[in-house]
Amino acid sequence: MHDLSGFPITRKWPAQHPDRLQLYSLPTPNGVKASIMLEETGLLYEPHLVSFERNDQMSPEFLSLNPNNKIPAILDPDGPGGKPLALFESGAILIYLAEKTGRFLPADPARRYEAIQWLMFQMGGIGPMFGQLGFFHKFAGKDFEDKRPRDRYASESKRLLGVLETRLADGPWLMGDDYSIADIATFPWVRNLVGFYGAGELVEFGSFPRVGEALERFVNRPAVQRGLQIPARD
């Protein structure tokens, strides 16, 4: 019998299926990394919506799991040694789920670290830069008369897209023929950049045809299509 009652987060989001992995998230580019990975691996899980409109991420229950108040976070009742494991940070979650299932992360040590380096490339570059561009292009920052901040992030986003474009010359995915957690981390952000943020023209997205083709391959995967909608919004 799995007992998750010792975790305060379950008071706000009770587990209907305590034997399943618990996902606390929202369908944002970072949030869907976890839901897509869970859909791809077929692990049984129970999703819980963390609503930014209700400020759920700042609740004491959520902060007990992630003191950095960011989604996604997970609670796995069947963690290492059969003990529950609480985990936050999308990159760490992807690595954990890959190792738990033996999927989407190469077994060969050299290839494994190669995949992790591209995951870190997304975490340290793609996510922060695309996110800042979104702020200055679509949200409050768009009203700034000084366009230098927007242009700085647009320029850096174009450079990062160029890195992806070069990498994808070697195969359909960031690890060549092998679909991996690097792709699961990266392409939700590319999708957001040209979709939700509407910055495709600003970054001249048409100049990166391999990235566009890889994005299309990614969103056509059934598990990706499901994961992009999880957890369902209110």
From TrEMBL:
Residue ranges of domain GST N-terminal in the record: 18-105
Record domain GST C-terminal: where: 108-234
PROSITE patterns named in the record: GST_CTER (PS50405), GST_NTER (PS50404)
Name of the protein: Glutathione S-transferase
Natural source organism: Noviherbaspirillum galbum
Database matches in Pfam families: GST_C_2, GST_N
InterPro entries in the record: Glutathione-S-Trfase_C-like, Glutathione-S-Trfase_C_sf, Glutathione_S-Trfase, Glutathione_S-Trfase_N, Thioredoxin-like_sf
Keywords: Transferase
PANTHER family reported in the protein's UniProt record: DISULFIDE-BOND OXIDOREDUCTASE YFCG, GLUTATHIONE S-TRANSFERASE-RELATED
GO molecular function: transferase activity
